[in-house]
Design brief:
This protein is mainly alpha-helical and about 20 residues long. It contains one helix and no strands. The longest helix has 11 residues. The termini are far apart.
């Protein structure tokens, strides 16, 4: 489902309201 842990973390960060680069 996730390409990598980084993608999963980035998704969670986005949910937090902070969009990663």
């Amino acid at each position: 489902m996730w390409k990598s842990q980084a993608d999963r973390k980035a998704f969670l960060v986005t949910l937090g309201g902070i969009k990663p680069k």
